[in-house]
Write a structure and sequence with these properties.
This protein is mainly alpha-helical. It is built from 5 helices and 2 strands. The chain has one domain: Non-ribosomal Peptide Synthetase Peptidyl Carrier Protein, Chain A, CATH 1.10.1200.120.
Length: 143
């Protein structure tokens, strides 16, 4: 089998296509969550922390380039070494929201799968059916 034919076979399998769709949707979902965190959650958290903007929270590691930067972007533009812990906190919150949403999705899918797998309980046999089963079993024994 040629390399190209083998690759085509691999790429056209259902699981690979499902994975590709999942990655694309996941990327879009990540942007939505990032927007939720940056534009809705972090400003609310900023209110409770005295107006602190986590995205601009940083420590200067070396003050040789200056020490009075008003924002993280300004410090980075000046080439100052910074420890940008605010961006890290924001990324952790993004991750926790995405992980929670995926947990809920998997839990929902497992619930749907269990319902499909559960076969309906066999109906109670009527008196005639019980009698027929007994007759069948006796005939099998006598042979």
């Amino acid at each position: 089998m040629s390399f190209i034919k083998e690759f085509k076979e691999f790429a056209m399998k259902g699981n690979v296509m499902d994975l590709a769709v999942g990655v694309i949707i996941g990327g879009a979902f990540g942007k939505i969550v990032t927007s939720l965190v940056e534009n809705i959650l972090m400003p609310v958290i900023g209110i409770f922390t005295g107006g602190a903007n986590f995205n601009d929270s940083f420590f200067l590691l070396n003050t040789s380039k200056g020490s009075s930067f008003k924002s993280l972007a300004e410090a980075k533009a000046a080439g100052a070494p910074v420890f940008a812990y605010g961006a890290f906190i924001q990324s952790v919150i993004d991750f926790l929201i995405i992980a929670f949403c995926i947990f809920l999705l998997v839990k929902f899918m497992n619930k749907l799968t269990k319902k499909k797998e559960e076969a309906p309980a066999p109906a109670e046999l009527s008196t005639q059916e019980k009698l027929l089963v007994e007759i069948r079993d006796e005939l099998k024994k006598s042979r």
